[in-house]
Every structure is written in structure tokens, then in C-alpha cells.
Amino acid sequence: xxxxxxxxxxxxxxxxxxxxxxxxxxxxxxxxxxxxxxxxxxxxxxxxxxxxxxxxxxxxxxxxxxxxxxxxxxxxxxxxxxxxxxxxxx
Length: 90
Description:
Layout: H1 2-22, E1 25-29, E2 32-37, E3 43-51, E4 54-61, H2 68-71, H3 77-82
Antiparallel strand pairs: 1-2, 3-4
């Protein structure tokens, strides 16, 4: 039973690490946020200004699943706007 608990806990930790590693990210630049790591395919990245010259990225669903930036996300200003976030740092 103890081995099973350890295995379940290990799976949870690995899933959490994978989610963090695959999450999009944004950094603060003069004027606002800019994306530095895109969302995974099928998702968009929303940059959020957190105050104190910091930003974070949040993976969100695409507003249009057929849009080229949903199928192939990148870190462009256009992709940032597609995520509907703070994109003033470009």
C-alpha cells in the first residue's frame, strides 16, 4: 500500500512539472508585457501584468481553433494580442 501511495504522488508531481514546463510565459519590458515562451499548439498565451514590473503568462483556450496562431503559437506581438492580454512591451 505504501508503494502505491509513493507511485501516485510521483505521478502527480511529474504531471505538475510537465504543466509548468509547457506553460507559456511573459516578461515585463518598458510599457508592459511581452511573450517569451508560447503556448502549446491548440492554446493561446495571455500575458498578465502583475505589478512591480512583472508579468506572467497564462495558457488560455483559443478564440478561434482554426487560426494559424492557435495551430502554431509563437511569441510575436500578434500572438500576444491573440491571447487577449497585456502586450505593451513589444
